[in-house]
Amino acid sequence: MTLHFQPPAPDHVPPERMVDFDFFAVPPGMADPTEIWHDLVRQGVPSIFYTPRNGGHWVLMDYADIVEAYRDHTVFSTYQTPVPPIEPFPVVQPQGVDPPEHNVFRRLLAPLFTPIAVRGMVDELQRRAAGLIDRFAARGQCDFIADFAARYPTGTFLHLFGLPEERLDEFLALASTFFRSTAPAERADNITQIYAVLDALFREKQASPGTDIASTIVLARDANGQPHDWTDILNCGFLLFVAGLDTVTNTLAYIWRYLATTPDARRYFRDRLDDPDAFLRGIEELMRINAVSSLFRRVTHDCEFRGVQLRRNDRVVLPNTIANRDQRVFENPQAIDLDRAVNVHVTFGVGPHRCIGSHLAKREVMVSMQEWLRRIPDFELDPAQPPGAAFGGSVMGFDSLWLRWPPR
C-alpha cells in the first residue's frame, strides 16, 4: 500500500534544529506535564525545531509563528495530520478539511454552538453538574477526574447527541484510548470502534429523528437539497466526539488543581458567583495558563518558512501552552492574573478552524465552578494522591486528581 501522507526522511533538517523531544513522555515525578514544553524554553531550543520522535515532526515555539500556522492553510493544512502518522485517517468534518470546503459542515454546526444556543443549554448543564457533585459533596473527598471531570463533558455529549446515559463508561473508554495510545494497531482499531458506534447512532436518528445534534446533522441537506455524503456525516460525528471530551476534562482538572492550592482564587470566584462578566474574565485567564492541547498541521508543499526549509507532508505541532506564555505578547505571562484585561490566548485556536465549541467549553467550566463552589467552597489537594498521575500527548492532563474538604 502506498502511504501518501507520511513525512519524508528528515535529511532536510540542519543539525542545529534537531532536538530529541517526545511530547508524550512525562518524566517520573513531574507533577505538571506542561513543564515538558516549558523546559524546552528554559533550555533555549530553536524557535522552530525538528524531533525524530513519533514519526518525526517540526515544533513551532513562537506565538506569532503558531498563529501564522493556524491561519495559513495554504502551507499548514489540517488534512491528514495525526502524530504519530496514521494512514488512512478519517477526514474529520470540518476540522480536517481546508477552506473553502470546510465551510459546508462549519456552517451546519456553527449555529448549534453560538453564545445564544449555549445559553439555552445552561439549565441542563447546571442539572448535570449539581447531580454529579451531590454524589460526593458530603463525603469530603473525591477523585476529581473519575468522579466529575471525565463524566461531566462526556455525559453532556451523550445528552446533546441523544444517546442514553448508560453508555457513558463505553464512551469514556473509547476516548481514553484515542487520546492516550501511540500503538498503531490499537489506534486503528479504536477509530474503527468509534465509527461503528457513530454509524449505528446516525442510522437510528435517520429512521427516528429527534431534536438532538445527531438528528440535525443527519437530516441536513446540501446546496442541491440532497443528503450529505454518509462518510462526511460520520466524519462530522467523529470530530464532535473527539473534540469536546478530553480537552474539557483536562482543562477542568488543571483549573481545579490550581483552585485547590490557591485560596485567593477560590475567594475571587466565590465573590463573583453572580457577576458572569467578571467570572468569565477569570475563566479566560485560566484557559490561557492551562492550555492542555497541542494541535497538528501538515505541510502542503516544499517551501521556506521563517528561513527554515519545510517539505511536503512534514508534520508540525503547535503547542498552545507555549504560545500562551510568550512574553512578547503577554505581560508577566507566567503569572495568573484573573483580571487580565487583554487576553489573546490561542487555547481554542485562531483562523478558519477556530474551535466551534469554544462557547460551550467555557460555559461547561463556568457552570461547573459555580455549582462546585456553592457546595464545596473550600478544598485542597489530598496528600494521598498517588505519584505518576500526569501524562503528555496531544492533550495533557492527569489520570487522577484527589481532592479533600471538610465533610458535611
From TrEMBL:
SUPFAM superfamilies assigned to the protein according to its UniProt record, in alphabetical order: Cytochrome P450 (SSF48264)
Name of the featured protein: Cytochrome P450
Pfam families, sorted: p450 (PF00067)
CDD domains linked to this entry: P450cam-like
Organism of provenance: Novosphingobium arvoryzae
Nucleus keyword on record: no
PANTHER family: P450, PUTATIVE (EUROFUNG)-RELATED
Keyword annotations from UniProtKB, A to Z: Heme, Iron, Metal-binding, Monooxygenase, Oxidoreductase
InterPro entries linked to this entry: Cyt_P450, Cyt_P450_B, Cyt_P450_CS, Cyt_P450_sf
